[in-house]
Amino acid sequence: MPGAGRTIPFNEVQLHNTRDDCWVVIDGEVYDVTHFLADHPGGTASILRMAGKDATDVFTPIHPPGTLTLLPPTLHMGSIDLSTLPLPELSEKRKLDLARIDLARRALPPPEAAVNLGDIERLAQTVLTSTAWAYYSSAADDEISHRENLASFKRFFFRPRVLNKVSSISMSTTLFNGVQSTMPVYVSPAAMARLGHPDGEMEITRACAKEGVVQGVSANSSCSLEEIMDAKTTGQDLIYQLYMNRNRQRSREVIEKVDRMGFKGIMLTVDAPVSGKRERDIRAQGDDFQGPAEGTNEGKGVAQAISGYQDPDVNWADIAWIKSLTKLPLYIKGIQCVEDAEKAYEHGVAGIIISNHGGRQLDYAPASMTVLYELSQRRPDLMKQMDVYLDGGIRRGTDVLKALCLGAKGVGIGRPVLYGNGCWGEQGVRRVFQIMREEIATGMRLLGVTRLEDLRPEMIRYTDRDPTLVCPGEGQ
Predict the structure, then answer these.
(1) Catalytic sites, residue numbers
(2) How far apart are CA 423 and CA 196, in angstroms?
């Protein structure tokens, strides 16, 4: 490396603090990122705020190990003289945020105190940084689709059967071409778990191993694939989420890598050719993402900082190309209408994931449950010929059962896993799974079924209205 062996005092780094001359320190190494500014997916503003400074604390939570190896070696200027590096200065806003978190952590109950996933979400808001909470919880524009994901499940009511023996039930199943799972729930690939816990996705991997749950690994994980694979146990199976890169060679390398590493399938995410406008994320006002720099319109949140490499021209022709590179089963994630479900089947994929990206992309995109219902009405034959999964808005065991009644093979949960990880790490993620398992078991028994195969369309009915949640005499 050009800067190998050179030691640079911090006062020299401080001189390089402009758009035309920008140095930063990361993990004790000094980089000249002046010519990289225009290529940074998160825009120039987030880098310029750290020009001439130590950016380690900002960089590390949202970039997996090895990210810096992608930079040209010529950008490495040398190692910082640690004796000259001052203690980090915290803004008043950051100090208040840390004080709030410290108090909340001290008051945090054990995972067992959480009765449902809503409890975990409310606790997570108290212990996460403002930046982490905004990134995890935010959705597109007015967040209509995000709320609709949750509301859509409330339009389906059960038709329980009684006087069946239900003392012994089984919710074990196989997902993603034969991967064993203790229940019909998997972890949807969700990025930046290190914003909530220092071990990030590794904690999720460990929890999945102990609970027998399949993990979808995000392409934008804050842990490297090597770290995640090292954290898994023998026989544990993982699915990889793929975004198509503008540089097809990069995508080829990733596909071949996950194949070699032993992943059991690939989810090609197709509902994010560009990043949605997640306003809460943009407005987070963390020290690392503070809105536009003066005189610019470059303010971006975490979502934009980790995006930008995706190809907006990814199309159906890419399916055959991916299949030519690997024998791994391919699933299309982000199907939002029956017509595209039909096209996916015609292109020979192993299955589809009905999803609107948790409401984080196109606002007013239909709820996943709504699309699943339409597919079950119009093309029930397709659901017998390829696997259909769903994510978005799953918060109850009854939500899972409703999706399975309509023919879904399994459902994915994303935000609740991040919230559990943010509260208690591995134990918090395990608590999420335990709650879901308990609720699914109770729901099956009260529906009068003992196997997942017993769940059928005639066991639920659709009501074309939002059910009232106000008891008589209240809220009037």
Answers:
(1) 243, 271, 357
(2) 8
